[in-house]
């Protein structure tokens, strides 16, 4: 009798072992990751927040010289006005750095991107506010990052999925910089993403730069919204702050904006400033662009409604 009971117990244990092999219990840590949502980062803001993002042509905001040609103080190489809507999609206005603006005390128009070296983020924010027609006090916040922070952000995520429509090739010995990217869907590391945002198609230099910037923003939003990435964002934002981000956002505010901005990663809405055809320029002079004369009075639509 005891022998039969022992054999039955052994059979039951073996059967349970087989079931466990066929349907193993999911790892608890992976279940927790799968359950993460952007709302777990922080409480989203109660109203729309406008953020001015300034990408520099230097490695870090504090660097005295840029990493471009000609060498000199840092310029704003990429400008984005981002509206984070707690109940709607993320809205992004791309601003050309060579957009002509007239500021008090200057006899000639200046490129919007050059204002950074003249007065830092405050001067850029004032010019953008007047240009776009923002309400007083907007943009609410600013974020300035150099090329090193962009690479660190992407590498902190591991990589991002991007789909350049064709192969990108370029080499500049004066800067010691080379672009060598294949076309098609692929995972890009930080240095490759830098190549993508810096590439200019010779036939459409300004538009291609805008297109690639939008491609990278969409890819970053999609990647950061993944459950397996959400758990990294708090420590990653603290690391980037130590690496040289320049911002008037607190750590809590950064996470709050991420909670709202990543809640609908597939609904990012981009708007571009309509430009007039380029005017002739003298050799050595910056090629400034003007807003198209038939452009709408409001360059950026109001806060979008929830989809």
Name the structural class.
alpha+beta
Number of helices: 9
At CATH's second level, what is the architecture?
3-Layer(aba) Sandwich
CATH topology (fold) name: Aminopeptidase
Strand content: 15-25%
**C-alpha end-to-end distance:** 70 Å
Helix proportion: 25-40%
Could you describe the 3D structure shown?
The protein is of the alpha+beta class. The chain has a single domain (36-272), classed as LCP protein (Aminopeptidase). It has helices spanning 2-22, 28-35, 115-132, 147-157, 190-198, 205-224, 227-230, 233-243, 251-261; strands spanning 49-56, 76-84, 91-95, 100-101, 110-111, 141-145, 160-162, 168-172, 177-181, 186-188, 246-247, 269-272. The strands form four sheets. Strands 11-6-1-2-3-12 form a six-stranded mixed β-sheet, sandwiched between helices. Helix 4 crosses helix 5. The protein starts with a helix and ends in a 35-residue tail after the last strand. Residues 5-10 and 12-29 have low confidence and may be disordered.
Task: Characterize this entry briefly.
This protein has nine helices and twelve strands. It has about 300 residues and is α+β, with helices and mostly antiparallel strands. The strands form four sheets. The protein has a six-stranded mixed β-sheet with strand order 11-6-1-2-3-12, sandwiched between helices. Strands 4-5 form a two-stranded antiparallel ribbon.
How would you summarize the topology of this molecule?
Blueprint: H1 2-22, H2 28-35, E1 49-56, E2 76-84, E3 91-95, E4 100-101, E5 110-111, H3 115-132, E6 141-145, H4 147-157, E7 160-162, E8 168-172, E9 177-181, E10 186-188, H5 190-198, H6 205-224, H7 227-230, H8 233-243, E11 246-247, H9 251-261, E12 269-272
Parallel strand pairs: 1-6, 3-12
Antiparallel strand pairs: 1-2, 2-3, 4-5, 6-11, 7-10, 8-9
Helix pairs in contact: 4-5, 4-8, 5-6
């Amino acid at each position: 009798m005891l022998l039969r009971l022992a054999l039955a117990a052994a059979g039951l244990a073996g059967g349970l072992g087989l079931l466990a092999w066929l349907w193993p219990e999911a790892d608890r840590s992976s279940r927790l990751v799968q359950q993460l949502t952007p709302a777990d980062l922080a409480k989203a803001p109660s109203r729309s927040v406008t953020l001015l993002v300034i990408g520099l042509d230097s490695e870090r905001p504090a660097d005295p010289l840029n990493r471009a040609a000609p060498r000199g103080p840092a310029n704003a190489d990429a400008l984005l006005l981002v509206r984070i809507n707690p109940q709607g999609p993320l809205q992004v206005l791309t601003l050309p750095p060579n957009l002509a603006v007239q500021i008090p005390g200057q006899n000639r128009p200046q490129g919007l991107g050059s204002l950074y070296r003249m007065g830092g983020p405050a001067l850029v924010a004032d010019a953008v506010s007047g240009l776009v027609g923002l309400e007083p006090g907007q943009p609410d916040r600013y974020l300035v990052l150099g090329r090193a922070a962009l690479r660190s952000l992407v590498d902190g995520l591991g990589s991002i999925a991007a789909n350049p429509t064709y192969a990108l090739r370029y080499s500049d010995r004066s800067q010691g910089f080379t672009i060598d990217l294949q076309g098609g869907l692929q995972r890009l590391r930080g240095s490759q993403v830098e190549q993508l945002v810096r590439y200019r198609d010779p036939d459409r230099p300004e538009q291609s730069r805008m297109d690639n910037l939008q491609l990278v923003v969409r890819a970053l939003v999609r990647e950061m919204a993944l459950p397996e990435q959400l758990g990294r964002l708090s420590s990653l934002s603290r690391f980037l702050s130590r690496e040289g981000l320049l911002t008037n956002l607190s750590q809590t505010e950064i996470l709050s904006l991420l909670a709202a901005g990543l809640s609908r990663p597939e609904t990012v809405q981009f708007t571009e400033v309509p430009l007039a055809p380029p005017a002739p320029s003298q050799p050595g002079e910056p090629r400034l662009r003007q807003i198209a004369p038939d452009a709408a009075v409001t360059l950026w639509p109001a806060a979008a409604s929830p989809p």
